[in-house]
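Below is how a single chain appears once it has passed through the pipeline. First comes the sequence as given, then the structure the pipeline wrote out for it. We keep one example in the README because the format questions we get most often are answered faster by looking than by reading.
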Amino acid sequence: MFAVAIFGSFLLYLVIGAVVGRRVKDKSDYYVAGRAAPTFLVAGTLVASFLSTVSFMGELGFSYDGYPVVMLLLTAFNISGYVLGVMLFGRYLRRSSALTVPEYFGKRFNSPGLQALAGVMVVVGIGLYLVAVTQGLVLVVGQLVDIPSWAILLIVWASYTIFPFLSGSQGVLVNDTIMFVVFSVAAILGMGWIIGASGGPVTAMQKMAALTSKPDGISWHGLTGPDNYIGTPTQAVIYAVTFGIVWCTVVAVSPWQSSRFLMAKNEHVAIRSALFATAALAVTYLFLTFGGFSINLFNDGIDPSEIAFIWAGQNVLPSLLGVIAVTGIVAAGLSSAASFLSLIGFSAANDVMPYLTGRRVRTPEFAASSAGSQRNTVPAASSGANTGIATALGEPADETGGDSADDDRRGLQIARWTMVVAGLVVLVVTWAAPPAVLTIGYFAATLFAASWGPIAFWSVRSTRLSARAAAVGMIAGFVVVAIFESLSEFAGLELPDLLNPTILGFVASIGGTLLGNIGTQPSKLGNQFRERLMEVPAEDRDPKRYRRTRAWVIGTVVVLFLCGLTMLLLYAIPYASTLA
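Resulting structure:
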């Protein structure tokens, strides 16, 4: 039954991709879904591209090990990145009408070289994250289907490669939202059933507090004893807060999150979708964390802990609910994998290859136009053989050139086949690399927090930043995180809690940006681009839209309040009474 459900879902997503792909006419359709997506679809893809096997296996396994409240504290910080991200970066990104986030950086600093650099980081960083997600999917399916792992890898790879190849962002958008519904139902119903089967929320909490095999696992600081791998209670809090802030930055500026706003129909849709995602993840993680630890009441010896939810789906949940749960885990992984692969293909085709081959990169909506329409246009950066490394360091780019219909069709084909090539590389790396779902996923995500975080916010707020400063800052953050994470993971380097590699990378990015800015001047065209980004589009000034967005804000606050009240009534009070 599990195999039929999983492979049936694979087939469904492929059919949807084929159908939606028939509507793709140009690069705007393929890259950003025609910039016409409504709130539910944008919110669905935001959550779906965030939740993956890293969440349903790695983070749920972390909760199962004895750190559910630590995981919740981390989550409280990281989901705030949606609102902070859309207000401080995402809405301006959408106003740029770029096709990719690296293209935004290229236009903002009038530098095709910087665009190419950011594009390379997308290909490398998201490529690593995609390896982690693929490993998780292979692990899930391997627990349920008795076929060789290489065959599972090929099936999984084909499943998340074919439909974005056919339909681009439109197929990803629709499938992501379907998958969002599937895995949300799986998380809430599956974990809810497990807690109910343990005697209900209050009784389950009391049993978990009294669990001797994992002492203090339900406490605010998590597990104590010989199996504790976080450290002292203070270290546990420092871990949650530092990684929470890091993930807040990841949610705010990472390409697989911020690029979703490029698809929004208008700015209010972008803001509402961020609010929706915040509320949805708050509710989902309440179930995943406490539900994950409650699996210990049925089996406290699952190894590896990443398969705890799968074990519960096979051994605790009723058959139908177990199928939904396992299908939900697979859907979470597939949605993220498809999003990541599409972003890799888009950046390679749109940001990296044109710079390397000397082709010009422009989006027509930002081409120089007539005097009567200049108010609604923003100068675009373009690339050419004459731009060279000087452009990456702040020299003005050539302003001529544009995309013809033939260029647009050729661009679609390049994007599609670049995606396939990138996917083949990921396939080989996944086959060769040892499984490490949570480790690789966190490592890849934090690369963007350190290298892109400061530059993304700076690009909106500052008029003094040059392209060279942005490039040096990105490189410094990326390299420092990569080096220290590798030393920590493979060479046994131990750093103080407040000096983890991401914090060091963040500091290096800021320092590199300041040093790189010395002796340079910001691009005038880049600052003109920024000035126009400060203007609220006329369509978004409608009072009715403001009132609807205000209602979304109130609704999100109510949901978060109810989550807090649930923690008080169903966690804090029962836990305190058990201790007493």
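Residues 361-403 have pLDDT under 50 and may be disordered.

See the next section for the split statistics.
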